[in-house]
Each structure stands twice: as structure tokens, then as C-alpha cells.
Write a structure and sequence with these properties.
Number of helices: 3
Strand content: 25-35%
Order of helices and strands: EHEHEEEHEEEE
Structural class: alpha+beta
CATH topology: 2,3-Dihydroxybiphenyl 1,2-Dioxygenase, domain 1
Number of strands: 9
Shape: globular
Distance between the termini: 26 Å
Largest sheet: 5 strands, mixed
Helix content: 10-25%
CATH superfamily: 2,3-Dihydroxybiphenyl 1,2-Dioxygenase, domain 1
């Protein structure tokens, strides 16, 4: 349904390092950058797979509230994402585990990035 999504970050270099580490277990890497010279002042980085950036971070205007983004993953990738995100400076917002309040197979982990955005890796398939 969506082609791509982007969020604002306060420190591009710090956010790029965090997302590079946190998303690596999901096979997602930074595949494109747009410089301040190209945008008139803001940094943008596009993360994705197979050459297509689907998730963008940038130093554009900060949203008035924090956002929530969930990445599709396998259960082992959920666990690896959580470990990598915490090691990269993320803050725990819910360790890997089942969330039966959503549905019986909802297995997810949540971390907050440096700007307070709630980043999730989720597997909705049966174990």
C-alpha cells in the first residue's frame, strides 16, 4: 500500500548510525543519501533492500509528535533487531515477545530512537 515513509531526526549522523545498526539484522541498509547541497540545507538518507529506499530519515522539519514505524521481520530477526538497536543507543520500549492483545501470533520488539520515535520489528506469522 505505501511506497515509502520518512521521519525527521535531530542529528542525521547519529540517526544514520543507529538505523544502520538496528536495521542490519532485517537486511535493510542505507542505500541512498541526499546532501544539504542538493536539498537546500537538510540531510536525507534512504534505507531499504534491493536498491529501493522505503524508509527515509532526514533533518527536515521535526514532526510535532513522535512517530511509530514497524518493520516486517521473522522472529529471529525481531530478537536480533532489538539487540542491535539497544547496542546502537536505542532505548527499550518493549522487549521481544508475544503481544496477544493484538493477536495470538504477534511477536514484536520496540525501541525508542534518540528522538523518541517508536521503532518496531514485528512478525505476525505463527511460530
Amino acid at each position: 500500500m505505501l511506497d515509502h515513509v520518512g521521519i525527521s531526526v535531530s542529528d542525521y549522523k547519529k540517526a544514520k548510525a543507529f538505523y544502520s545498526a538496528a536495521l542490519e539484522p532485517l537486511g535493510i541498509t542505507c542505500i541512498m543519501e541526499v546532501t544539504p547541497e542538493e536539498t537546500g540545507g537538510a540531510w536525507y538518507g534512504g534505507f531499504g533492500k534491493a536498491g529501493k529506499p522505503d524508509f527515509w530519515i532526514g533533518t527536515g522539519h521535526k514532526a510535532s509528535s513522535n512517530v511509530h514505524v514497524a518493520f516486517k521481520a521473522t522472529r529471529p530477526q525481531v530478537d536480533a533487531f532489538y539487540t542491535a538497536a539497544l547496542a546502537a543507543g536505542g532505548k527499550d520500549n518493549g522487549p521481544p515477545g508475544l503481544r496477544p492483545e493484538y493477536h495470538p501470533n504477534y511477536y514484536a520488539a520496540f525501541v525508542l530512537d534518540a528522538d523518541g520515535n517508536n521503532i518496531e520489528a514485528v512478525c505476525q506469522a505463527p511460530a
